[in-house]
Amino acid sequence: REAGCLSIIVLGASGDLAKKKTFPALFHLFQQGFLQENDVHIFGYARTKLSDDDLRERIHGYLGKVVSTENAEVLSKFLQLIKYVSGSYDSDKGFQLLDMQVSEHETSKNSQPGTSRRLFYLALPPSVYPSVCEMIRRHCMNQSDLGGWTRIVVEKPFGKDLESAEDLSAQLGELFDEKQLYRIDHYLGKELVQNLLVLRFANRFFMPLWNRDNIDNIQIVFREDFGTEGRGGYFDEYGIIRDIIQNHLLQVLCLVAMEKPVSLKPEHIRDEKVKVLQSVLPIKPEEVVLGQYEGYKDDPTVSDSSNTPTFATAVLRIHNERWEGVPFILKAGKALNSRKAEIRVQFKDVPGDIFKSKKQGRNEFVIRLQPSEAMYMKLTVKKPGLQMSTIQSELDLSYGLRYQDVKIPEAYERLILDTIRGDQQHFVRRDELRVAWEIFTPLLHSIDEGQVKPISYKPGSRGPAEADELLAKAGYVQTHGYIWIPPTLA
Ligand code: BG6
After folding, report:
1. Is the CB of residue 243 below 6 angstroms from any atom belonging to ligand 1?
2. In this predicted complex, what is the ipTM?
3. pTM for this structure?
4. Cα dihedral value 41, 45, 50, 56, nearest 10
5. Contact call for residues 37 and 424 (beta carbons, < 8 A)
6. How far is the CA of 143 from the centre of ligand 1 (A)?
7. How far is the CA of 316 from the centre of ligand 1 (A)?
């Protein structure tokens, strides 16, 4: 066997992220054979006092509901891999105990010293990252001389602004090498986000068009049709820019806008992402619209005087040869009229239009990240029939139709597998994070200080009308009388 046994340690095992994302992803990996019974143990760690069986029952409680009866046996096998250790996040004792348990597992699997693999998944609030990492460093590192490793998975929020993020990075950087740190942005694990690189750099179609000469504007949009339900306390501290735009949408922007990397090596890709972020100009206050939905402050965990935006549209401008003059419009909102995430590339008008009688819709290339994953190109065609008139239509690659037998993996599944394989391509590098914060920190400070106020909007609406005005000002032209309907199986 080339590598020693694998221990996956989920810290914060009784929390929400572990429940909703980490354990389900681990289960799916197990189900698909990526985690081998004779090789893997999963340890849950948290403060709550629980027995192994208590934790198993909890996990069974929520996974059992979504797992079909024919998979019940797989689920019970999976649960047997799980052990629980309780302890605090800053005490030596708990982590010594954890180390003992993990080491026992390694010995029982006859792992050669120096070959075993330890993956620590921090499903925890970032306030405890430094102490937890310190404890891991002090008590739980394995020997790694024969190909074994210790890796740490962390998730946003990485700080609240440039300074706090840099502090956190510096603290973690003292304890672990960049190679050991996996900063998750789960948007990078989504199928259509991962497709961006292939789409852009493996297709002759796009290469000559993907620039300021042809593209008028690009929107990257995230909409949710529910509010901050149950997460008001967390959300109010952060707001939509820190929750969605500064990370998820900005990561998508990188992949849409970056230059071709030298190769597919993670460092080559991340170098290009950093470069494009460094070319983003300071955001102009007049190119931002903020909103807050009515009723947001009724949540008892949200302050009555909250200035936190639940909606934001911001225009980013990239100062380089490819993109000068092309607005990148990032838009995200909660409690809107629909749920979807998409990238919308709008091309310029056709010069010297001879079909003047009716204004033509602009060509658009849309990548629908979710739901109903698809790519489609909106274009003008001759309306079928005897008369010579035009109509808007589309070339459509809808995944549900085209890839009927493929189950699209959950972002977290893929990212955890990447961590086990040691592939950092889809994780955020420290310098990338830094530039991402540089872009948004001035705006965030002005919101925190109350200099800019969100405009109130009705839940279930499109958000503040001012955002549509900003969109139009930035150059986006809406095609009226046409909407794309995800095709379904006949
Ligand atoms: C999380 C945000 O990172 O992403 C949530 O904290 C948001 O507020 C979620 O709901 C959206 O993720 P997805 O995969 O459902 O688009």
Report:
1. yes
2. 0.95
3. 0.95
4. -40
5. no
6. 36
7. 22
